[in-house]
Amino acid sequence: MLVRFVSQGVPLAEGDMNEIPEVETPAASGIYDDEGNMLQSFMDRVREALARDDAVELRDAIGGLHETELGEVLGYLTTEQRQALVRLMGEDFDYTALTEVDEAIRLEMIHAMPPEQVAVAVSELASDDAVYILEDLDAQDRDEILKRLPFRERLRLRRALEYPEESAGRRMQTEFVAVPPFWTVGQTIDYVREDDDLPETFSEVFVVDPSFKLRGAVALHEILRAKRPEKIESIMHPTRHAIPAVMDQEEAAQIFEQYDLLSAAVVDENETLVGVLTIDDIVDVIQEEAEEDFRRLGGVGDEEISDTVLTAARSRFAWLFVNLFTAFLAASVIGLFDGTIQQMVALAALMPIVASMGGNAAAQTMTVTVRAIATRDINIHNSGRILRREVLVGLLNGTVIAFLIGLVVTLWFGETSLGIVIAVAMIINMLAAALAGILIPLLLNRAGADPAIASAVFVTAVTDVVGFFGFLGLASWWFGLAR
């Protein structure tokens, strides 16, 4: 079979493959090495241009960068260098890059600019990028910028900012293509070609009634394949996955994932079309949510790498403070058996092993559970089955680990009874770890708390207390009987 390719709109036969231009990879672009790291020589060139106030050299170095690459450059510069870069680039600076840097850097750069300059920058951005920048500002600073925008644009951005944080309404683009159902395909194509106010890229044309209520959508490929006289209503399909503007952005991302969407209409409480979510927005949401869950599992909340020492310390302190109390609880359990420990010093050396193994096992179960809660893979229908699975996993791993550690302890201290005690304690703690790792996140989620940020402290407390109490309690009972 003859294979055909298309390059710049021209069909190529199989023998013409050598005419296809090479695609430039990041490593070939001159700013990244083979591992995808930004070259030190490139950054030195940028810093030297900034030090000399050489606008020509700076434009030559970064003028063609993608917004994500420019955002990475900004992250490597100091505060003074970032301000100099914006000043030297002038109108050539791509303000979309502000959406690609940490919040601390973004706010620092915006606060260094006069409101007039920020207003001009916002007016050049797509609405979702503009909202992303404005939402982190104080209400007073935000109003100072918005009042300098044209009325129509100001109204559109204010409406988007009224939706809850991390909702579809905050993520949506308010620029979209909508036509009435009685238009023909030809009218629609002419409208898309001639209207300069339409978005630069889109994959669907939405169909609305006179009150702008959503009736359906037509994919671009369907329009291109239809005859010009055909009515839009004859080729449109009902929009089965319209997303409410107040829906959480993570739920919207799950809809995109479930139905393999490229874009989706966003509607208000009256089913009126107010915007569109696109796959590039959803990719950002998925990445942000994954990073957020990962940070919260470590108890660092919304901390970013660019935060100040004071901000980072404050964000971490709360759960360290809670952990202090749970540590005292575990210590009090040890205090109950101080007499037993004094009689058999080997117990003090072996206690951390039991607690550590239980803590690691619980962390594994907790990580799987928290992620399953976030992706809604665990629910009332399968929670019992998953609980049984984790208990059996804990029992199996606990038995194997118990046998190994019991054997090692027996050979190490020459006490078979001590090996049996620590082996039984290990099985008990591994079972407790499995139960705590799944039940605590589920209970916290049911109570309305965030299981990602709250689970670790309580799960660790359970494995420490059960581990110490089980090991020392069994040792006291066993060696008490022996005497």
Molecular structure report:
There is one protein chain. The protein has 483 residues and is mainly alpha-helical. The protein is built from 21 helices and 8 strands. The strands form 3 sheets. It has a 3-stranded mixed sheet. Strands 6-7-8 form a 3-stranded mixed sheet. The protein has a two-stranded antiparallel ribbon with strand order 1-2. Helix 1 packs antiparallel against helix 2 (55-62) and helix 7 (127-134) packs across helix 9. The longest helix is centred in the C-terminal third of the chain and has 32 residues, at 451-482. The chain is globular. Residues 1-10, 12-17 and 23-28 have low confidence and may be disordered.
Beta fraction of the residues? 5-15%
Tally of DSSP helical segments: 21
Strand order of the largest sheet: 3-4-5
Oligomer classification: single chain
What structural category arises from helix and sheet content? mainly alpha
Return residue spans where pLDDT drops below 50 for at least 5 consecutive residues: 1-10, 12-17, 23-28
Ends apart, CA distance between termini: 87 Å
> How many strands in all?
8
- What is the 3D shape? globular
Mean pLDDT level: 84
| Rg over CA atoms | 30 Å
Bin the helical content. Answer: 55-70%
What is the ordering of alpha helices and beta strands?
A: EEHHHHHHHHHHEHEEHHEHEEHHHHHHH
